[in-house]
Amino acid sequence: MKTSTESPLLIKVHTEFNSIDFGVIEPVAEVARLQGELNRILADSVANLPEPLAQEAHSILNSYSGRNGDFFSLFYVPIWSFLHWSAASMSIAGKAEILLTTRTAQAMSLFLHLWDDHLCDGQLSIDILRLQLRTLAWQRYTSSSYQLCDLVGVDHQIANEHITQYLTSQHGAAAVADLDEYCRLFADQVAIWTAIPRLLDYSISGATVEGPLQSVIKLFAICWRLVDDIQDVDLDLMAGKQTAVWIELDQTGRQCWDECQSRSLAVGSLEQNTWQELCRVIKHSGCLARLLSRIEETLLTSSQVAADNGWQGLARELEQSRRGISRALASKSINRRG
């Protein structure tokens, strides 16, 4: 079966929830250069494939991302820009090597999470090229993570903890009871995103448990998950996923969800009458307002933590991100009841 290589992050069917997003981050030259470096790191990994597989892989990545040579524009800036903003906090000894290693590991972790997700759910077709590209990225991620452990002087067990969390949480995830459990599970599912911030925390302050940088990135990642769930209500409905939106609905709302899902699957697309009723319930039951409020509060917390630790540029990006959520929350079409 032929499947699309276009990234599922790109919105194809527009609904009234698609426009809800983080605020736009004002570009900074140093962060733009870092984005270019992350893209070069990914390109170097692709170049390790035998020719002509490497050429085909470049083409697949461009089609998948919809952005020629700029794969990392798919990711919201703070999830990788922390590599730049935290650099000033590092000790001078071995700094250049640490910077390169952290960038390599984070680039691979972001690629892997997205690639694994869409290989597993069938939105990317599985063939030897895609599997080998995943293998190369995984090898480079693990080797650079272990190298960073060595550079900062900590046991490889920290990197292994995050690898274990990632793999076990992605495989056969259990049902969750509430939104708090849902967010905790997702934190495990992006554990390879937070390993590098944790190791940098150790480099900066000697923290062996979750430090401020890891906390900031984990909180932002959770916000991203919640925003994505809001944007993708229609897709998740059709796919039978019980996301944050479903969790926050009351019994009546879940009945509307089930009815819309049943009728939509029967006709092969969103059944408009039940879809419009579900949209009304999501907006007027307090479900959407609660999710947006949680995102807004979490972004505020993360920006304050960043500012308290001297990462003013990262704090500014998180605050700029929060503005988009605040605008959505202020919409008169959203009922805060509940």
Textual characterization of the structure:
- The chain has 338 residues and is an all-alpha fold.
- It has 15 helices and no strands.
- It starts with 28 loop residues before the first helix and ends in a 9-residue tail after the last helix.
Give the oligomer, counting copies of the same chain as homo and different chains as hetero.
single chain
Question: What are the low-pLDDT stretches, counting only 5+ consecutive residues below 50?
Answer: none
Tally of discrete structural domains: 1
Gyration radius over CA: 20 Å
Total number of beta strands: 0
Mean pLDDT: 92
Name a few traits of the molecule.
single chain; 338 residues; mainly alpha; Farnesyl Diphosphate Synthase; globular
Sequence-ordered SSE layout with sheet pairings:
Blueprint: H1 29-47, H2 53-65, H3 78-85, H4 95-120, H5 128-152, H6 157-170, H7 179-189, H8 191-205, H9 212-231, H10 233-239, H11 244-248, H12 251-267, H13 272-284, H14 287-308, H15 312-329
Helix pairs in contact: 1-3, 1-4, 3-15, 4-5, 4-8, 5-8, 6-7, 6-8, 8-9, 9-14, 12-13, 14-15
Short description:
By secondary structure, the protein is an all-alpha fold. The chain contains 15 helices and no strands. Helices cover 69% and strands 0% of the residues.
